[in-house]
Specification:
The protein is mostly beta strands and 276 residues long. It has 2 helices and 18 strands. It has an 18-stranded antiparallel β-barrel.
Length: 276
């Protein structure tokens, strides 16, 4: 664990990654190559039914400046320039997307042993301003996440979160959607050698009075191959297997099953079979 509480986006991140990261409907591959000058080129593709999405990312590093240039199949060009520690604990990020002229954004991040602050502002005449802060330690952290639309004069986001961590367990509680939903999550590391972990998330919506419960697990079959599985209270079960066939080059296969639909079909089939 790090010394400080991290940023607001770190609250509940372990559980979110376990339950949602890398899940997609079909196949995904990622290939990373390095040039002799240290330029990293990452190509990724995702197949969803008959749709194939791909992008190519080029990363260049020069001292403490990292430039990422990504091109996708929709002809969008995303450029991100990161300046790491122009001052102790500070990181500056400039990003913009072509052809979207309103996508420019500047972000500042500051990490301290007892605080983490992130603020960003859009490079437009009436920008959206984001601000998040966390106070605490690497064991207990309390934070808030706000977004303000200067054009309308309204807060578009108002979230708060609490996180508790120890050597093998991370628990978090977040209030999202301007107080409309409450989420509690946990992540438990069972075995570090096999990267075995279990986790869960419970979300309650006050406006619909609906609960969503998701539980999942992961396990490394070997140092290069990981399997993950999850299921929620709506009967949706998902699983994936991911293999690193070369450094930072991944191949992922995942699928999803609606167990309630199968159960319903089985009941209909049984009823037809019993019909005189």
């Amino acid at each position: 664990m790090g010394k400080g509480p991290g940023l607001y986006s770190d609250i509940g991140k372990k559980a979110r990654d376990l339950l949602y990261k890398d899940y997609q409907s079909d196949h995904k591959f990622t290939i990373t190559t390095y040039s002799p000058t240290g330029v990293a080129i990452t190509s990724s593709g995702t197949k969803k039914g008959d749709l194939f999405l791909a992008d190519v990312n080029t990363q260049l590093k020069n001292k403490n400046i990292t430039t990422d240039i990504k091109v996708d199949t929709n002809s969008n060009l995303l450029t991100t320039i990161t300046i790491d520690e122009p001052a102790p604990g500070l990181k500056t990020i400039l990003s913009f997307r072509v052809p979207d002229q309103r996508s420019g954004k500047v972000e500042l991040q500051y990490l301290h042993d007892y605080a983490g602050i992130s603020t960003s502002v859009g490079l437009t005449a009436n920008p959206i301003v984001n601000f998040s802060s966390v106070i605490g330690t690497n064991l207990v952290a309390l934070g808030t996440d706000l977004s303000f639309d200067s054009k309308t004069g309204n807060f578009t986001k108002c979230n708060a979160g609490l996180s508790f961590s120890n050597a093998d367990l991370i628990a978090s509680l977040t209030l999202n959607d301007k107080g409309d939903s409450l989420s509690a999550s946990y992540y438990h590391s069972v075995n570090l050698l096999t990267n075995t972990a279990v986790g869960g998330e419970v979300t309650h919506s006050f406006s619909t009075n609906e609960n969503t419960i998701t539980v999942g697990t992961q396990h490394a079959l070997d140092p290069l191959t990981t399997v993950k599985a999850r299921v929620n209270n709506f009967g949706k079960a998902s699983a994936l297997i991911q293999h690193e066939w070369r450094p930072k080059s991944l191949f992922t296969i995942s699928g999803e099953l609606d167990t309630r639909a199968i159960e319903k079909s089985a009941k209909v089939g049984l009823a037809l079979a019993l019909k005189p």
